[in-house]
Amino acid sequence: QVQLVESGGGLVQAGGSLRLSCAASGSIFRINVMGWYRQTPGKQRELVAHVTRDSSTNYADSVKGRFTISRDNAKNTVYLQMNSLKPEDTAVYYCKMEVPDSFSVYWGQGTQVTVSS
To answer: What is the DSSP pairing of strand 10-13 with strand 111-116?
Structure first.
């Protein structure tokens, strides 16, 4: 059974930084895309950033230049370094991993990020 375990969320003042981590455990191989999404109450979950196995990245316009996504394939782990945080970054952040070979998509349980003004 595959599980994604997230860590690193919390409360931070505007302008501060946080680093999120998401590690996959269980029988999971050849993860293609790893990504981070976020959701606030009453809104749809939105893409924050994703990174492919060959390290190609894509970011939401709202986080470009402030957030950096990276991955460690040997550890099946994806990271999100968040700098210059703003109150509008407040959300529950979810990691996602896709394994095309098995047509599988996995989600983490979510971690709360709160940015105070």
So the answer is: parallel
Read off the pLDDT of residues 74-106 as tens digits, 9 standing for 90 and up: 999 999 999 999 999 999 999 999 998 888 999
Residue 105 φ/ψ, nearest 5 degrees:
-130, 130
pLDDT at 103: 85
Cβ neighbourhood burial of 16 (10 Å; 0-12, 13-18, 19+): middle
Q: Tell me if residue 29 falls in helix, strand or coil.
A: coil
Q: Which residue has the higher pLDDT, 116 or 99?
A: 116
Q: Where are the beta strands (DSSP E) in 8-117?
A: 10-13, 18-25, 34-39, 46-51, 57-59, 67-72, 77-82, 91-99, 104-107, 111-116
